[in-house]
Design goal:
single chain; 216 residues; mainly alpha; 12 helices; Cyt_P450; oxidoreductase
Amino acid sequence: MDVIASSAFSTKLDSHNDPQNRFVQAGKKGFSTNFSFRSALYQLIPGLMKALGIPFISSEPTDFFKNVTLQIMEERKRSGQTRNDFLQLLMDSAKEVAQEQKWDSTNVKDEITSNYGQDESTHQTTKNIANKKLSLDELVGQCVIFFLAGYDTTASTLSFASYLLALNPGIQNTLYEELREVLQRHKGELTYEALQDMKYLDNVISETLRLYPPSP
């Protein structure tokens, strides 16, 4: 939970010491007992569920994360602040696409014609390419999915990895030695480059996902 909130929104949580945190409560509601029941019904009778207007995930947690995302975006636009997180990457991407769309659509059409030949049809290919951008709903939706989809899957994968390491102390020791050696080489800092050097850790996680995939 803490890692996902930090990666997606640059928000610091203390879920272990503050279980009543609104982020924590919203995540739990998204994967309550009703979620498993709803998921089964959506696989059995998807058409009826959609016709009845029953959402796949409860609207309360999704609405909460939508509002949080919109508030953070508005605050960053107002203050001009930037953060090193998933939301900022999406905002920067949307901004770059918007700037690129200032090009004349004629340039796009000329490029397509030069590559694929003249198209005399009334197809809207060039218009679709010129107008394609990341909408606000898509941007917010990506952040909501990032949080909700990673909430339960990350926790279950780490739990299974710990279980498998407990059953295989030899592998656990090998992994421990690698972590110790890599961290020592990187002066105790767990950076992206340090993670890239943890090859055995990657093998452990991959094998855990093979044995216990988070979703069928």
